[in-house]
Amino acid sequence: MKNIFLNTLFLFVSIITFAQTSDISISVKDAETNEPLLGATVYFEELEKGAVTDFDGIATFTEIPNGNHIIKISYIGFKTIETTIDVGTQKEFAFKLESGGNELDEVVIQSSRSTRTVRKIPTRIEFIGAEELGEKAVMNPTNISMVLRESTGIQMQQTSLSSANTNIRIQGLDGRYTQLLRDGFPLYGGFSSGLSILQIPPLDLKQFEIIKGSSSTLYGGGAIGGLINMVSKAPDEEPTLDIMLTQTQALGSTANVFYSKRNEKFGVSLYGSGHYQKVYDPEDDGFSNLPQTTSISFNPKLFYYPSEKTTFWFGLNGTYDDRIGGDITKIESGENGIHQYTEENLSKRLSSQAVYETQLDSVSSLNIKNSISFFDRKLTIPDFAFDGKQINTFTEMNYQKSANKTDWIFGANLYTSDFDENDNATLQRDQTDITFGAFVNNIYDISDNWILETGLRADYNTDFGFFPLPRVSLLYKNDSGFSSRIGGGLGYKIPDIFTEEAEFINFENVLGIDKSSLEAERSYGVNLDFNYQTRLFETVGFSINQLFYVTAINDALLLNSTDNGFFQFENATDEILSKGAETNIKFTYKDFRWFLNYALIDTKLNYLAGNPQKPLTAKHNAGSVLMYESEKWRIGYETFYTGKQFLSNGTETTDFVTMGLLLMRNFKFGSAFVNFENFTDRRQSRFSPLVLPPHDNPEFPEIYAPTDGFIFSVGIIIKPFGNEDDD
């Protein structure tokens, strides 16, 4: 009886002890400077619980079970710590991180389709993290153009003064050769491409992943120039609420709200954005440089976690966007005499995303995803309207398996696109495309220093046939901070009418795609880059990346005039050849960071006599960004140089320099900021006219420089759950 009592008492005490929990804090500092590290990640692997350090470098946790726990502490640019702590014996822990390793060593990139970190992926991937995204969201809270415009080798090409329609050019290639993804879904393109980046606010995004050069093996047709994958924020145990309010001197008002939270079984994220821009005319020439815009976006997501190994989430993305530009008098007072010209874009977008991912065992996983995207747009100018609806669907299943030295990915997908022009239109340019695809990708560790990646995709389009798409990349890395990648692959693009040339003339008198006479565009490309990172004088961090690239496009889609006043698409008789180099240099010293970049873009149209440079493509571009970041302040000064360009008629433009200044102060409630964008007021109207007479039926020259000029903005970011300074 006595033994039974003692055993029962021992068991009871053990249960009580086991059930006890503690609230703890973990301090993370720079081992060299002893300064707190803001934004370091602290993660309990067994508990699947994580937190990010605050301005004091402290991460706090509640109700951690007493006992030994393995934690992992990581921060970009520092060596990761994995160690064991004994919760219960103490409640405060302190760690110091040492500099070293590749800056992006701990960043896992989704667009690679692999769970490897950047340092171990042979494909060259550029990463833009949450910190830089936050800076760009302050500079432009309405859309992602600021994020991309300041990336080396990427150009935002505006195609319309009145509507501000803009396309993304990577390494001198038209926007239709860039595949724009969100969480791995190809949601933006076709009829919506000229408006796509104008309708994606940045506040609910946590990172950008950019692959330059052909990426069709990974994601199918359209990624000839490259792909940009935007990764959304996911809910965590700790609730997040961000409220951003911004006002510009150009009478633009923007509100963004993001909320997320999860528990053991369910999670939710809610995002909403509203933007109103009054028509803006800095030249006082009677025509708008910024259109009158009303834009509303929403993006709710629901997450379900049936087990620790399985996640299912479903999201909706909706946008209503109405922008009207042109004659100021007509916009504000109605048509009157010579005041007749306006361009209006009314668009509505609704898309769904569903993802099921599960860990089958310790080395393999299954991922199933589907999206349906609906886009309704009406473009109206005097005496003409282009009106249509486009429905795109994307379904994919992939299986991943990892071994000691090799990773495999097998997958298949179905992509459909259906454009239906209004039945009242004179030219019926409806188009339906169906593409089936299957792919396999392998990453193999040849040794500690050499990693090989190979892949093969086979796509079949019901109208244009079969596309075999091989790719190969090789990575060399060592422990002294040097690495190099070389890779190449093939790509293709199915023809449609939504090109920059067609959009420039508002699709008026543009004939539809003749599938019986046109060939799909095909490409090949090669990238070679070198990376080196070290410390200078023990206090200055230094890194450099040098890229060389070549991309060639055969059977390029051209828009040519006919004898009867129409425009029809034809295949080019020779290739478009884009080659060049990109240089990125970074210096760090305590709270200062200095980025320098240069891009040489040599894009030749070999199908024209003399192989001229592609119009509206500056051969030389350079930039400098100086940042100061402390616990309380973030100050950024930017300078960007754009070299001379050629217009379609052969006229050479002037080069120009733009400058920007950002001031941001962190408080306990959040942050306040002011931004001086293009404060030297460089705009095209200072070099050449933006509008040519007659006033009632104006002509608009090609756009090669900023049109809006200096924009001053002021705003606040409110974090009810969040910021803490050391006051």
UniProtKB/TrEMBL annotation:
Coarsely, its chief localization is membrane
- Localization terms from the record: Cell outer membrane
* Keyword flag Membrane: yes
Where in this chain does the record put each TonB-dependent receptor-like beta-barrel domain? 287-677
Q: Topology versus the membrane, per the UniProt entry? A: Multi-pass membrane protein
Fetch the Pfam families from UniProt: CarbopepD_reg_2 (PF13715), Plug (PF07715), TonB_dep_Rec_b-barrel (PF00593)
What domain of life does the UniProt record list for this protein's source? Bacteria
Can you give the residue ranges of the TonB-dependent receptor plug domain? 118-226
Q: Could you tell me which PROSITE patterns the record lists for this protein?
A: TONB_DEPENDENT_REC_3 (PS52016)
What keywords is this UniProt entry annotated with?
Answer: Cell outer membrane, Membrane, Receptor, Signal, TonB box, Transmembrane, Transmembrane beta strand, Transport
- UniProt keyword Transmembrane present: yes
The residue range of the signal peptide is: 1-19
What family is this protein classified in? Belongs to the TonB-dependent receptor family.
* Name of protein: TonB-dependent receptor
